[in-house]
């Protein structure tokens, strides 16, 4: 049947996958260079957390803006603006000469990178029926994990051969290559010349077709809708955990298990490889339940509850006696996060019409970044306090307790605001 329908929509997913890979490659470079930069610029954990917060603050503000902008100007142009902005900001890190300079470059990176997910989720809604959206989202969202897998191999090699400045320049320049393919291959289905009618009809088999003359929804109106808050709190409580995995795991393995970050890091590669499996598997699971005859809301909720439970064992990381025990527990939690992420984005596209999706994703993403601003301050304060006391591992133990409980709490709050994941009529 797939051959009859056509497969062009999966080429669109490939574009979204590579953009997300580049997005996470660019943002993770600083975590891998943290020990080197700490020595170069005499950073404390609090200094580093402040740089992370600069990224999160800019990311939060920009998500709100980008969501509305993309709904107004369209996915193709909106995505292009985003990747140009973040690629230039990533390169700018190489020219920072102070902690403040890194903060400025980091903030600029956050402003640009915020466009990725509103654009990608909107593109997925434009190109896929609901029954395939979770899988499509899981596939492109796995780019976050591939970026995180590539970085521990690529960045240490560049650092050793050419220095930390070149690590930022090389990774930042990749986005401009992707931009060429984006302009060649992407367009909305209604305007795409290579899309067959059978595939167009299939894409719109259970959703409203796009209307070029339809006005986007004012984002202030979205704050009066309960389902918006389900997505907001789901992101606010769980996004900060992923930021911790990205920005502090290399340092955790280095300080706790003496991992040499100047060499390709197998433990980090394994953790982020597991997240790729989680992202695609998480998207597949809810789709599997739907194909078995489950209602879409039930399929999403049960899947997300399973993923929330899978994060809980990370609390036992404090008892790990060697690096591989820690890798196993953290890999399970990180994979579960990405499975959760694939479904929470899809829940938003289930509940809201296409004309409002980018705005909703922007609002929820902003909430996640607000949580991502608060959590690094807690992490930095805890680690500096316990480092001063000569027991930094105790700080990580508290952080793992917070990580393990966040998803169950988020699931409960989401269920309160949207018990049936009801579709919004705007």
* Span of the ends, CA to CA: 34 Å
Estimate the helix proportion, in percent: over 70%
At the first level of CATH, the class is Mainly Alpha
Report the sheet with the most strands, covering strand number, pairing sense and barrel closure: none
Would you tell me the overall average pLDDT? Answer: 86
CATH-level-2 architecture: Up-down Bundle
Can you count the beta strands? Answer: 0
What is the count of distinct domains? 1
Subcellular location: Membrane
Domain Major facilitator superfamily (MFS) profile: 12-422
Protein name: MFS transporter
Keywords: Membrane, Transmembrane, Transmembrane helix
Which keywords apply here?
mainly alpha
What report would you give on this structure?
It is a multi-pass membrane protein. It holds the Pfam family MFS_1. It is found in: Membrane. This protein is mainly α and 426 residues long. It has a single domain (2-207, 216-417), classed as Growth Hormone, Chain: A. It contains 16 helices and no strands. Helix 4 packs antiparallel against helix 8 (164-185), helix 11 runs antiparallel to helix 16 (392-417) and helix 13 (296-311) packs antiparallel against helix 14 (323-351). The chain is globular. The two termini are 34 Å apart. The mean pLDDT is 86.
How are the secondary structure elements laid out?
Blueprint: H1 2-5, H2 8-41, H3 45-73, H4 75-92, H5 99-113, H6 116-127, H7 130-162, H8 164-185, H9 197-203, H10 219-222, H11 226-257, H12 266-291, H13 296-311, H14 323-351, H15 354-388, H16 392-417
Helix pairs in contact: 2-4, 2-6, 2-7, 2-8, 2-11, 3-4, 3-5, 3-15, 4-5, 4-6, 4-8, 6-7, 6-15, 7-8, 7-12, 7-14, 11-14, 11-15, 11-16, 12-13, 12-14, 13-14, 13-16, 15-16
